[in-house]
Structures are given as structure tokens and as C-alpha cells.
Amino acid sequence: MISYDFLQHYWWFLIALLGGLLVFLLFVQGGNALIFLAGKEESERQLIVNSTGRKWELTFTTLVTFGGAFFASFPLFYSTSFGGAYWVWILILITFVFQAVSYEFQSKAGNLLGKTPFRVFLTINGCLAPLLIGTAVGTFFTGSPFVVNKNAVSDIASPIISRWATPWHGLEAVANPFNVEFGLMVMTLAICLGALYMINNIANDKLATQLRRSLLISFIAFALMLALVLMQLFTMEGFAVAADGTIVMEPYKYLHNLLQMPIVLVLFVVGALLLVSGVVLTLTKPSFKRGIWLTAPGTVMAVMALFMLVGYNATAYYPSSSDLQSSLTLSNSCSSEFTLKTMAVVSLIIPFVVAYITYFWRQMDKKSLTTEELESTDKY
Amino acid sequence: MVDTALVDWSRLQFALTAGYHWIFVPLTLGLAVIMATMETIYVIRGDDFWKQTAKFWMKLFGINFAVGIATGIILEFEFGTNWSNYSWFVGDIFGAPLAIEGIFAFFMEATFFAVMFFGWDKVSRRTHLLCTWLTGIGAAISAVWILVANSWMQHPVGMAFNPDTVRHEMVDFWALVLNPVAVSKFFHSVFSGWMTGAIFAIGISCWYLIKQRHVRFALASIRVAAIVGISGTLAVMLSGDSSGVHIAKYQPMKLAAAEGLKEGGTRAPFSIVPGVEVPGVLSFLATHDINGYVPGINNLLNGYTTPDGINYPSAEEKIARGKMAIEALREYRAQRESNPTEAAKARALLDEHIDYFGYGYIESRDELVPSVTLVYWAFRIMVGLGGFLLVLMIAVLWAERKQCLSKAKWLLWTAVCAIPLVYLAGQAGWIVAEAGRQPWTIEGLLPVNAAVSSVSVAAVQTTFFLFVAIFTLFLAIEIRILIKAIKKGPEGINN
Which of A5, A6, A165, A202 could tie A322 with a disulfide, CB 3.0–4.6 Å? Predict the structure, then answer.
């Protein structure tokens, strides 16, 4: 029986899936963060830009679809977070906007600024976008200062239902170390993914050596951030939904969630193992190049598990630190049953979309990218 | 009190983003058809000339495409950042087409765009052709869904107000998708993109003819582009006609503003320019009947009765009923748990006046009239330029077929100069559509002052000027890169 409650959970599953895919596809950003660090020579930088450049639109599209899916399924989140944490989202958008044009513009004659500034834009996007997205997701666990009052619609003079409680409009998130650590964790993971993707996608021994070095450093940083985040996550108080629908603070809520949802526990553990094994195998076996195809599914699974941890098992996924009862839960922020059902039917197309993306991805990446190929065909 | 400056700056920011976005989108829609047609000829004939011709237009397509994407993402997220109340109040309906757009269209564009550009040697010739078409089809599908969303803002259908969640909720998905306004708007917008692509390609090709460079390439491009452009323009005219009827039916104030019509009636005149009117033509365009009744601005504000006896309330009555609906909602929510009887009464009152709910946020009747000067002149610019560009494309194609185009310098220069005009026409069209809908974000349901986010005016001003700087920089760079690429000309084709 497809109940309203099931549909809410199904849509949160899709949000989690899109979130997982988005973090995996942030390898584009991670790769760009290495343009100047791993790419010592022009030919190497060109290889990096062209390697990530053939996939950037998928990351971009996943981000847009992630936003669209949130809008369609949990519009109160869209309304509260985007309208409230104004500066964080605007900054994220601006970094992506610069990225979108930088690939196309960077090597074109007449681009006004020259090649380097556009590559700097790509690098800034490579670092800032995962950092900011991660910091924003960190607030899913720690809370944000907002108040939701649906009765405000009846106030003709001021009918706005969601209000941010600080004038910082999202920037206050950096005052909480957990959010920043979460952001740094996503950023360093993106760099690991970028390095892994390019080790597999680019045939250039010298660049591969530099990428492995970058992978080692970023993985150490990632492991440190992951340990910090997990330590706090499993010991912190969480935002629980009581039987009467009120929001209460529950000690060890996220640890409880993990233990009370064995499937999520398995997803998280398997995901984490795959993620780590892809990196470790790449670092320990010089001939091993396909680490991305272990780390990528591992990333998707681990990120999905984190989203499930914060959304399922009677948890407020977007808690308010200003007014506990304004916190957003799957049931109080979702679309109507009709809309969720309609969109659930639409979502059946997703496997087909994934299938054709996978097919053409394989077609395009059958052969690793070389400097020779860039000299003979169209390039960025 | 919602700060009117906040509303104005939020509107300005959205208009800026939408305006810039619509510089890049129509060229994507139009060039996609032109280059895919050229590649089809290449695959059928096996003539490398057509491959290089298609590749040249693809190069320009790619430069333009990236900026279109960049401005598009901001547009989507601005519904949340700047119109957060809107996002909740109608997100149950409006979010669906945006999500579908992402799933159906954006992934298509993203996947096949990369194959189209970098896959010439990686996939078969036919598969590549398929990917080129799918890139264009992806862009058109994207237009379907965003225009379904926009049309719902012009003519909301398929929803019901739920006082428990305080929002409108979707009750009929197909009513939303097959909204008559959406159907005509889709054809009108997409085919106007064909016009843009065609005028762009024709203008550049004519420049090559003036310079006596790449003559074969230029003439071939003109043939394809003119056919695409002329058929597109005819479709724009047809869909424009049905669009006019829909506006008359669902947004009479927009029509009255676009015509500067203060007092309406039967045999309403069409204003060519102020003071020059053709009797009965507006009635015919609006109702397909020369004696049809078209209300003017004053009729709409004062209330009126059509010749067949239907009464329409005055602005004051609508505002009063809107305020009663809002008060009934407040009462319903206050009583729904403690006093079900009173709640039921309030609910009945709300249902009675719900059609005027949005009017409750309107303070005075003057707010209900959009900027007549802006909408009136934007409409004339759109229609006038559309007609001129059609004649131009026919003339260019005729001259090309008669093999006298290269000698007709005046025609070649006119075609070159027409490139900015097609953009002006497109922008004017959207000004009519969006500025003509004011003060509503959703016609009759939610005015702009009840739709904004709770952010400071200073924040929106800052982002507005930031976007002005970024978009203008991108536009300047794009134009410069395009000019360089055009000057360089197509590769692999003899001069």
C-alpha cells in the first residue's frame, strides 16, 4: 500500500540518492582544485581541464535537479533554507556560475581575461563549492536560526511564513565548528574523487604521479575530518520527532538512528569501506587505476546513509536552533500526497536516465585522455 | 509591513536574471535545429562540407550554451532565495515541472552536449547525429517544462487551496501540463528561438558575403537558416494569435495595458501607435469576432457587464472579498482544533471568497494596473520587429535563390544589423508577458508583495549589482569570443 508516509520516505530516499550522486560528481570540482597543484605544466593543466570539462555539466545538472527535487517534494525546505540562508546559497550559485563559463571561455581567443583567471575561477569553484555545500549540509545536524509560522499568511501587512532569525542569513553556520568540519570533509573527499577520476581518465604518467601525491594528502585530510565529524555526530544530541509530533532533543540521536536502522548501518559501513578501499588500493598499487569505481559507489552509499540518518526514524532533517517547533520534518515540509504520488510516477524514468548516461559515459571514456588526442580533436 | 523597496529590488533582480537568460536560450533553441539539420545533410550526403558547416555553428552554440546554463541555475534558485513565500504557497504545484525539467531535459542536454562536441571520433556517425538532435530536443523539452511552470503563473489551473497547509495544492497534473496557455506559450517561445537562431546565422553569413569570404558556406547556411526561420516565424504568428485570445480570456488587464485601452467595449480598436487605431481589430484578435467585447482598464477596475450579461466585480469588491478570505483563513486556523463548528463556518466563508484571496493583499486599485507605457511599447516592438524580420528572411531567401544576394549589399547589411533586433523582439515579448502580469506573481492568486523572502533590501541590492557585473562581464566576453570566432570563420572549408 502506497501511503502518504511511504511517499514522504520514498522522496527522501530520492533526495538522498541525488545528494549521494552530487557528492560523487563533485569529482569535477575536486579535479579543478588540483589544476595548479597537480598540473605543473601547461599540457598537464590542459589535460585536467579537459578531463573534468567533459563531465562538468552532469555535476551542474545534478545540483539543479537536487534543488528541483527538493522544491517539488519538500517545498518548505526550499522556501525556508533558500530564502533564509541567502548568502550561503548565493555564494554557492556564484561559484558554479563562474565554473559554467570558465571551461568554454578559458582557452578561447578574445576572452578578455586570458587563460589563467578562468582556471583560477575553476579552482575557486573546486574548493569553495564542496566546502559551502558541505557546510550547508552540516546544518542539517546542528540546526539553523529560523522560525516558520504558517499563520503569518493571514497577516496582510507581513505574510511571510519563514524568517531567518539572524541578519547573517546563513553565514552564521561557520560559527559552528561541526559545520565547517563537515564542509572540509566534503571538500577533501571531492579532491580525492577528482584525483581518482583523473588517474583513471588521463593517460599521462607524470601527471598520474602528481595526482597520487595529491590523493595521499587529501585523503589524510579527509580521514581526519571524517573522524572528527563522526565522533561528534554519534555523540551529539539530535532533533527527534516525538509521538505527538513535537520536536525534542534526544541524546545520541544519530547514533540511535544508525543502530535502529540496520539497512542504513550496512549502507554506511559498506559505503565507507568501498570509499576507503578505492583510495588505499590506488595509493598502494601503482598499476591500479580504477579506484574511482570503488570510491564512487562508496561515496554515493555513505552520503545516502547520512541523509537517511538525518531524515528517517522520526528525525527533524532541517532543525531550527531558534524555535525547536519550527524544525522541518518529512511530514511537515513535504508536498501534498497527490504531488508526491505524481512525482513518484515521474521518477520511474530515473533508471532509464541513469542507463543512457552510463552508456554514453562509457563510450566517451573508453580510451584515456592523452595530449595527442587534445591536439587532434576539439578541446576546451 | 513588507518593504516595497524589497519587493521592487527582488523583482528587478529576477527580471535581470530572466532577461539575461533569455539572451542565450533562444539562440540555443534555434541554432540547435540549424546545426542538426546541417549534420543530417552531412550524414545523408556524406559531404564533408556539411560536417564543417555544422561544426562551425556548433562552436558558436557551445560558447552561447555555457552562459545560458550559468544564468539558468540562478533563475531556478531565485524562486527560493528571493520568493520564499511563493515557494511555499505554490511550491506543491510549481516545483513539479522544475524537477521534471531537471530529470527529463537537463540530463539529456548535459549528456549529449558532451558527445556532440567531443564524440566525433568516439561514436558512429549516425549516433553522433542522434546526439546532436537529442541536445536540441533536450533544450526544447526543457522549454516545455519551464513554460508549463510559467504558464501556470499566467493562468493557474489544476489546484485547490488547502487551509490546513496554507498553500495551493495540485489536484490535476494533466490540467497543469495541458494548460492552453502553456501549449501556445511553448510554441510561441520555442519558435521565436528558431527565429533568433535563423537571424543570427543569416546575419553572420551575410557578413561573410559582404567580405566575400566563405561564400559557399554562407549561402548554404542562409538556405538552411532562412527555411528554419521562416517556418519558425509563421508558427510564432499562429501561436501568438492563440496567445492573444488566452490573454484576453485569462489576463484581460494585461491585454488592456498592452493596448493602452482605457475604455473597452465591442468593436474595440487596435492601436498601431498612439492616435492611430483600426476599429474592431482588437476585438477580432482577442475574441476572433469583430464585435467581441474587450474590457478596458477602467472597466476592469470599476467592474463591467459583458453584452451577454455576465457581471464582473470592481477592484474594490475583489479587494474586499480577498480580505474576507484572508480573515476567514485566520479564523479557521484559530478555531480548527478548539471549535469545529466555528471553523466550519470560517471554512465555508473562505471557500466562498477563495477566488479573490490574492486581492486581499492589495491596498489600492491602482496597484492592479501594470505599467501601461512599458507593456504597450514592448508589445509594439515585439510585433513590429517580428513582422520586419519575417519580411527580411523571405527577401534574403528569395535573393539567394535568384543568385543575386551577394550583389544586394543593402540587404546584406540589413541582415547583419538585424541580429540585435531579434534579441530586442524576444526581450520585448517577455516584458509583455511578465511586466503585463503585475502586480501578480500568480495571476489573481498571489501578488508580489506577499511572495517575497524575508531578506534585507541591502542584501538584494548587493546581489543585484553583483549579478549585473557578472552577467555583463559574461555577455561582453561571449560577444568578443563570438566575434573572434566569426572573424576566423569555419575551419576545413576553402574560402
Answer: A165
Contact status, residue B229 vs residue B198, Cβ threshold 8 Å: yes
Distances (CA, A) of A232 to A134, A225, A247: 16, 11, 21
Please name the residues between 328 and 357 in chain A that touch chain B, using a CB distance below 8 Å.
335-336, 338-339, 342-343, 346-347, 349-350, 353, 356-357
Q: Which residues in B lie closer than 8 A to residue A55 (C-beta atoms)?
A: 114
Q: What φ, ψ does residue B278 adopt, rounded to 5°?
A: -115, 115
> Chain B interface, mutation test: which of A49, A378, A379, most B Cβ atoms within 10 Å?
A378
Chain B residue closest to A149 (CA)? Answer: B166
From CA A36, how far away is CA B320, in angstroms rounded? 64
Residue of A nearest to B358 (CA): A156
Full DSSP string of A45-98: HHHHHHHHHTTHHHHHHHHHHHHHHHHHH-HHHIIIIIHHSHHHHHHHHHHHHH
Q: Of the candidates A288, A287, A221, A210, which has an alpha carbon nearest to the alpha carbon of residue A45? A: A210
Residue A280 Cα, gap to closest chain B Cα (Å):
31
Q: Between A and B, how many residue pairs show a Cβ–Cβ distance under 8 A? A: 285
Say whether residue A71 is in contact with chain B using an 8 A CB cutoff: yes
Give the range of the structural domain holding residue A38, as residue numbers without chain letter.
Answer: 4-235+321-376
**Residue A294 distance to chain B (closest CA, Å):** 23
- Using 70 as the pLDDT threshold, list the residues of chain B that sit under it: 1, 494-495
Q: What is the pLDDT of residues B2-53, one digit of tens each?
A: 789 999 999 999 999 999 999 999 999 999 999 999 999 999 999 999 999 9
pLDDT value of residue B345: 97
- pLDDT over 70 for what percent of chain A? 100
User: A196, A291 in Cβ contact below 8 A?
Assistant: yes
**pLDDT value of residue B399:** 97
Number of domains present in the structure of chain A: 1
| Rg (alpha carbons) of chain B, rounded to whole number | 25
Do residue B166 and residue A90 have CB atoms under 8 angstroms apart?
no
Chain B residues close to A94, C-beta within 8 Å: 466, 470
The whole-angstrom distance between B115's CA and the closest CA on chain A is 7
* Contact criterion met (CB < 8 Å) for B329 and A103: no
Evaluate whether B301 touches B365 at the Cβ level (below 8 Å): yes
pLDDT, tens only, B255-300 = 999 999 999 999 999 999 999 999 999 999 999 999 999 999 999 9
Size of chain A in residues = 380
- In this predicted structure, the answer to whether residue A70 has a pLDDT above a threshold of 90 is yes
Are A156 and B361 inside 8 Å of each other by CB?
Answer: yes
Mean pLDDT, residues A123-133: 97
The C-alpha cell at A69 is 527535487
Query: Which of A61, A159, A339 comes nearest B170 by C-beta?
Result: A339
Model pLDDT, residue B1: 63
> Which residues, listed in sequence order, are joined to residue B446 by a DSSP beta bridge?
B442
In a domain, A275, yes or no: no
Q: Is A150 on the interface with B (CB under 8 A)?
A: yes
Does A291 fall in a domain? no
CA torsion A201-A206-A209-A210 (nearest 10°) is: -90
Residue count (chain B): 495
ipTM (interface predicted TM)? 0.93
Contact state of A87 with B459 under an 8 Å Cβ cutoff: yes
Question: Least CB-CB distance to B459: which of A65, A69, A169?
Answer: A169
Give the pLDDT confidence score for residue B495 in this predicted structure.
61
pLDDT of residue B231: 97
pLDDT beyond 70 at A281: yes
Asked whether residue A142 is domain-assigned, the answer is yes
Q: Is residue A15 part of a domain?
A: yes
Q: What are the angstrom distances between the C-alpha of A275 and each of A157, B138, B474?
A: 52, 34, 38
B77–A82 C-beta distance less than 8 A: yes
